Amino acid sequence: MKEHVYETVYLREKDFQEGRVLFETWDPNARYAWDAGIAIGRFLQELKAGRLVGTRCANCGRVMVPPRMFCEHCFVPIDEFVPLEDTGTVITFSLCYVTWDMVRIEEPQIPAVIGIDGASPGMGIMHLLGEVDPKAVKIGMRVAAVWKPPEEREGAITDILYFKPL
Amino acid sequence: MIREVAIVGVGWSPFRSITPDLSYKEMMYEAAVRAYEDAGIDPRRDVDSFVTVAEDFNEGTSIFDEYVPDQLGALHRPVQTITGDGIHGIAAAVMQILTGQFDVVVVEAHSKASNVLTLPHILAYAMDPVFNRPLAAHPYFIAGMEMRRYLAETGTPLEACAQVVVKNRANALRNPLAGYGADLTIDDVLASEPIAEPLTRLACADHADGAVVMVLASGETARALTDRPIWVRGIGWANDTFWLESRPWGQARYAYLAGQMAYSTAGIKSPRTEIDFAEIDDTFAYKELQHLEALGLCKPGEAGAWTLEGGTELEGEFPVNPSGGSLGEGHLLDCTGLARVLEVVLQLRGEAGPRQIEDAEVGLAFAWRGVPTTSGAAVILSN
Amino acid sequence: MGRNRVAIVGAGMTKFVRRAQETAKELAWKAASKALESCELTLDDIDAVVVDTAPDAFDGIHMNAEYLSDGAGGWGKPVIRGYVGGGTGVFAAIQGWYHVASGLFDTVLVVCEEKMSSCQPHPQGAFLTIFDHTTERPLKPNLLWIFALEMNAYMSRYGLSKKDIALVAVKNKRNAADHPAALLGDPDITVEDILNTEVLAWPVQRGDVSPISDGAVALVMCAEHVARRVTDKPVWVEGVGWSLDTAYWTNRDLSYPTYVEEAARMAYKMAGITEPRKQIHIAEPYDPFDYKELHHLEGLLLFDKGKAPEATALGITQRDGDLPVCPSGGLLGVGNPIAAAGLMKVAEIFWQLRGEAGARQVPGQPKRGVAQAWGDLMQVGTVIVLGI
């Protein structure tokens, strides 16, 4: 099957540094302003007020977060918003030692999926953990949101700084 | 076609220049609910496969496919994205049904163009990164160059292009879905500021937000679901060369090729006499004329005179873009072709209200993917 | 199955490298021309082209298939691009199947290309925008997070160790040593080598991850009457399946790929497979991370939930084991130019079933194989069953 493989020219960093290959660069100008809509619009408003909110499907009874105005299982509209706790349980987590462009960081970031109290079992959101020894993080750990001061909140997921152990 | 395929349900979220009240998910949900209601189906039970049409950079999300299943009722089902025009999405659905393995397939496309703050930059990002993009010109220059060449090759007067705008935006006044209905004159269009000469601002379609969902079914299922199926009689799509440096500037060869495939699958020999009306890409006014010629609906160079004589008006012998087209409805990015198909379906069902064409039996929808592409897709429907 | 029976009659690929001098279009052309050459056809024989590639953000070209179309042989032909994230490569073959099975086309060229290296300073930048723009992106998530979160959920559900999982990376990188297109083949690599690589996002270490790559793969697929004329060794498409789970990934049980099971059941049903563990002789599950091979083997119903690691430790998935898994070397060994890597798996089953896999040939003349890919936000499964 070797005859079915076409050779490619493998470039190394020094090929660029020494100008042996030429290239074109472009910095994309891609900017967006996404309409948050009904369900996420309300979610952001509540974050600004220091609260988490979900939606309940009248058909299957699931309380969902992030909220949505339709139930993806029953395919019915939803208009009932349900207040949730700002506490929860770590469903899974990671200790991340690199940035997105693979630069190493000393103190790991700790992303986690956090099942939110008041939502149906397994209904989590992604956020970061803080004020915790990375080695001490466990699946099943109870955590609570640490909010920005009210005057600094802007209606964004980052109005919660991180979750810390309860 | 070997196996019958029909459109049995259509739904939409209306086309408007901005839609700040709804997220894209909520917009898609609205269109989907309408389509399923129209078809009389439950997506959680009755649909075998879903096709969505989207391009990442129009959404601002890489791998946009991720975000489509929930609001379409497509969870845990076969779902695929087509990065093409809505009619390419129809083609994928038709092929799936023709295999005999799928009975009901749903196609979705949408536009949230108002959310893209740098749309011309995104469009420029589609150009060859080494040869063309570094020129850093607004990509509409390609349309300007093409229009000039088309006018020169065919002797079409500028007034004919302007009349396309006048006609389509007047048609849009009779279309409650359309966002850009207007009562204009040829002079208004010619006097609007130049964008890429000879192209003027009013000869370019403005963008709109909106969503369209369609339900397609195999013949047997279609007859069981509805007593007014709209049959897919032919379909075709094609690409010409992508190189700006070597494309045939005067002619829309992709439209010719896509049309030929559609006619051949439909068994149509004389499109002008066998088809009653058409919804044809008019992203730029001259494109409607160029596409009419490439699709063989009139002879090369005759579309302009035909238009000026009123032959393509709503009451003319061969109505073109009764919906208002992209000029009248607003350009819906990847959903543009589905908007064309939607109008053909409504006309064939006799549901086009004040713009209804009498005795419409066979209609053609044709979409082009816009500059800088040479990609087109056509579908022929009948009642 | 389908109106027309569909065969794969040719396959070709480029060498996978970290950074190719070839443009995306040139890579597509190289793979396409090799595939045509392999079955002695020319572009004139091709009725339609499927050209698939994963995020446009890698190549840095909006509407990338339009740009690629002529390189992939699509000039003047019907060209279409499908897209299901990382699942795209196997899905391209499914698209090729429905083009031909529909009866609309006799012979279709299927081309997958990825040039990840165009995206600077790191191709991962293309993945920053896969997260929800309102509820997740402001947290500045790194792609590795979601795999680490999933791997951790899988490990903790079944009490697995890093070593259990690293055995997959060892097997695949060793297998890749026999692949002429491979980027990371290493016949001597050991489990300690993998376990000693740097921690990226615990539990993910560098050795658990497939490399960023440039490359392209192409297939020629055709209807039975063409296949009989072109080759005496057609490989038939027996079943296809695909399924998409919710975008709300933080609401899902991450320890099991339900969507892969759904896709597999669809494909097996079409292929008339009732006992996959007996009826499937060779598998190419998607392995961008070593735990994913295990995850997917379970989703493909080839092993019980949580039992694929044990089977790996017993050598069952070795090239000479009872169920050879990723004899190509997989993404971990051959490389991971996303869409091209998925199609490479289909090509590998094609070569294995024809007995043309050279040094990688599995013993026992396999009659049926399955290739699978996975993608989007850990939510899509694409499966194809091939047989002779």
Describe this structure in words.
The complex is a heterotrimer of chains A (166), B (383) and C (388). Chain A has 166 residues and is mainly beta. Chain A contains 2 helices and 11 strands; from the N terminus they run βααββββββββββ. Helix content of chain A is 10%, strand content 33%. The longest helix of chain A has 12 residues, at 37-48. The radius of gyration of chain A is 22 Å and the shape is extended. Chain B is built from 16 helices and 11 strands. Chain B has helices at residues 24-39, 43-46, 56-59, 69-72, 86-98, 119-124, 140-154, 158-172, 186-191, 219-225, 253-266, 271-274, 285-294, 303-308, 325-329, 336-349; strands spanning 5-16, 49-53, 79-82, 104-112, 194-196, 199-200, 209-218, 230-239, 277-280, 362-368, 375-382. In chain B, a hairpin with a 6-residue loop joins strand 10 (362-368) and strand 11 (375-382). The mean pLDDT of chain B is 97. Chain C is of the alpha/beta class. Chain C is globular. The relative contact order of chain C is 0.20. Strand 3 of chain B pairs antiparallel with strand 4 (82-83) of chain C, so a sheet runs across the interface.
Task: Output the keywords.
heterotrimer, A: about 170 residues, mainly beta, extended, C: about 400 residues, alpha/beta, Peroxisomal Thiolase, Chain A, domain 1, two-stranded antiparallel sheet, 14 helices, about 35% helix
